[in-house]
């Protein structure tokens, strides 16, 4: 469970960062 949650958080962070970069750019 912990590993799954960690992976989800990492994926969510990556997705959020990508969207944020696109918005700023």
Account of the protein in words:
The chain is mainly alpha-helical and 25 residues long. Helices cover 92% and strands 0% of the residues. It has 1 helix and no strands. It has one helix at 2-24. It is rod-shaped and about 35 Å long. The N and C termini lie far apart (36 Å). The relative contact order is 0.14. The mean pLDDT is 82.
Give the topology.
Elements: H1 2-24
* Rg (C-alpha, Å): 11 Å
Report how far the terminal alpha carbons are from each other.
36 Å
Please, what is the oligomeric state? single chain
Percent in strands? under 5%
Helix content range? over 70%
Q: How would you spell out the order of helices and strands?
A: H
Beta strands, count: 0
Shape: rod-shaped
Query: Which ranges are low-confidence, i.e. pLDDT below 50, for 5 or more consecutive residues?
Result: none
Task: Give the gist of this structure.
The protein is an all-alpha fold and 25 residues long. The chain contains one helix and no strands. It is 92% helix and 0% strand.
